Amino acid sequence: MLSHLLENLDIEIFADGANLSDMIKKYNEMPWIKGFTTNPTLLRKAGVEDYEKFAKQVIELIPDRSISFEVIADELDIMVVQAKKISSWGENVFVKIPVMNTQGVPTYEVIDVLSKLGVKVNVTAVFTMEQVDAIDRCLRPGVPAYISIFAGRIADSGVDPTDLMTYAPNLVAGTQIKILWASPREVLNIFQAEACGCHIITVADSLLNKLSSVGKKHRQFSQETVQMFYDDAQKAGYTL
């Protein structure tokens, strides 16, 4: 039932992570996972030592679904060189370009050059409407692209991201640009992202593991929670 529900969502769920054996292989077997994303931080946490070797292993395993790999340069001209290389690894590869470098310099010219070359980009670390507008102007018609807006981190700052997450899909309607809700914090965000009109949401393994609760009756949830508290008290040997 859960699999049927997830397969029939309008929004695409992408698994976000860098553990090849325990995470990527597992979710590759699930048809409701429509793509995969990663980033240098996730790679480092997973203990990946050879970026290119890892990426090519993933592409060999998953030749038919979207996969995003990120450039690691901070200089704009080197970003272009790295993006061309990453793009050459596979037809299903999207190249993640940060919306700015570490000095705060926007990467719009990088996005413009790559889109003109037909490179499929995934512009990441996007937080503002102004950034979305600027990126949209750089992308070429007919060239697939993602704009990854970090809605979860926007919410972490105490700001409701739904206005931006509704604005962006309307802006790119009728194009091959897809808006991606990044950094979700709870399962509810999947349904919020769909309601906003977002095309994709990236979901980490820790959150994917909570999807079994989707559709669960709340009274059942209540009883299971009470059972958990009781069982743990018994196991701990607490007395009053």
Summarize the model shown.
This protein is an alpha/beta fold and 240 residues long. The chain has a single domain, classed as Aldolase class I (TIM Barrel, Alpha-Beta Barrel), CATH 3.20.20.70.
Please, could you describe this protein's structure?
With 240 residues, the chain is α/β, with parallel strands linked by helices. It has a single domain (2-215), classed as Aldolase class I (TIM Barrel). It has helices spanning 2-7, 20-28, 40-45, 51-61, 76-87, 108-116, 129-138, 151-156, 162-171, 188-196, 205-208, 218-236, and strands spanning 12-16, 33-37, 66-70, 93-98, 121-126, 145-149, 177-181, 200-204. An eight-stranded parallel β-barrel has the order 1-2-3-4-5-6-7-8, surrounded by seven helices. The protein starts with a helix and ends with a helix. The mean pLDDT is 95.
Tell me the number of structural domains.
1
Give me the number of helical elements. Answer: 12
Mean pLDDT: 95
CATH architect. name: Alpha-Beta Barrel
**CATH fold node name:** TIM Barrel
Question: Unreliable runs, pLDDT <50, ≥5 residues?
Answer: none
**Elements, N to C (H/E):** HEHEHHEHEHEHEHHEHEHH
Calculate Rg over CA atoms. Answer: 20 Å
> Main β-sheet, in a few words?
8 strands, parallel, barrel
Could you say which structural class the secondary elements and strand pairing correspond to?
Answer: alpha/beta
Instruction: Determine the N-to-C terminus distance.
Output: 43 Å
The neighbouring-strand order within the major sheet is 1-2-3-4-5-6-7-8
CATH class membership: Alpha Beta
Query: What's the count of strands?
Result: 8
Helix content: 40-55%
Q: Name the shape in a single word.
A: globular
How much of the sequence lies in strands comes to: 15-25%
The CATH superfamily is Aldolase class I
